[in-house]
Give the backbone structure.
Amino acid sequence: MMGLACICACAIFLGRILDAGVSRPVLTVRVVAHQWWWEFDYPSLGIKTSDVLYVPSATDIRLELASADVLHSFWIVGMKDSVEIVPGKTRPLDLVVKSPGELYGNCDSGCGCATVCMRFRVRASSSGSFDQWAARERLLPSEFKPPRTRVVPACALNSGHDGHAGRDSPAGHLQRLLDAAASTGNSPSQ
C-alpha cells in the first residue's frame, strides 16, 4: 500500500491549464474547505462526499476551490506548492492523477485548525470503477458525513505560534511526519 501511494505521488501531475488549445475537463468537483473538514461536491453526478475526494485516474478534472469560512489552502502530496483559498472567491485547479491509488492532502494555512485537523484523502480508481462507485453512491448515499457539531478539534486547541500543532503534542509529531513527507515527496507510514 505504501509503495502504491509513493507511485501515485510520483505520478501525479498537477497544473493550471491555460485557456488556449487545452481540452475541457471531463469532471468538475466543487471543493469547499470548512473549519475543520472538506466537502467535495460533484454537481454533474448529484453526489457529495466529505474528507475523501474520489476521482477517475488518467482523467482531466477541474477542482473549483472555495472556502466556507476563513482563509484555507489546498495541498495534495506531490504538489510543489499549496493553493490559497480565499473566502468569497472560487479558485480553479486542474488535476490529473495518472494511476489508481490513494494520496493524502491537507490545509496548511494556519486557519485555526492546524494542518492535522484538515486532512483528506484522494482515492483514484479506473474510470470503470469510478463509474460503479458513482452509481452506487447515487442510489445509496453514504459518503457525505459532515460534522454534526462545530466543536473545535483538540489539535486546533494545542497549536504553536504559527497555527500548526504544538511540537510536543501527538498532533505536532504527526505534523512533523507530514512536513518531512512533503519535503521528500513520500507519504508517511500509517
Observations:
- The helical segments are 2-11, 114-117, 127-139, 154-157, 170-184.
